[in-house]
Amino acid sequence: MNRSPQEILAGARTIAVVGASRDPFKAGGSVPAGLQRRGFRVIPINPHADMLFGERVYRSVLDVPEQIDIVDVFRPAQDAPEIARQAAAVGAKALWLQLDIRSEEARKIAEAAGMDFVEDECTAVVASLFQIRKTAA
After folding, report:
1. What is the pTM of this model?
2. Which of 23, 37, 41, 93 is the most exposed place for a label (fewest CB within 10 A)?
3. Is 44 contained in some domain?
4. Per-residue pLDDT band at 2 (split at 50, 70, 90)
5. pLDDT in tens, 3-15
6. For 70-98, what is each residue's pLDDT tens digit?
7. Total domains present in the chain
8. CATH number assigned to the domain comprising residue 60
9. Are 22 and 55 in contact (CB under 8 A)?
10. How far apart are alpha carbons 110 and 57 in whole angstroms?
């Protein structure tokens, strides 16, 4: 697939955030909260928390019991291939690596699974630039 970051985000409703943080001053805390305020369903993935952003936290993408549109990654690049494999296994529509995260291996895994792929871009910046908001379903 070759949709632009704007098209991917505009077409999404559910975003699993790998590396979601309870620290509102870290990108993994502030970006998901901002996406949630824009109407996205944010599913936090973090092995060390139970609740974040008012949502149940899952330990891995593989544990999420619902369809995921975007797996949004706030983890180091070396973790991206395994996260890409998990995203492919659950049928996510897109894999998104946040600012300063790049992985050719994750790209190959995502593309082989038919997922859209974005790297080194911030979901919050794209949402803000293009005024992407979700309305109640």
Report:
1. 0.96
2. 23
3. yes
4. confident
5. 999 999 999 999 9
6. 999 999 999 999 999 999 999 999 999 99
7. 1
8. 3.40.50.720
9. no
10. 24
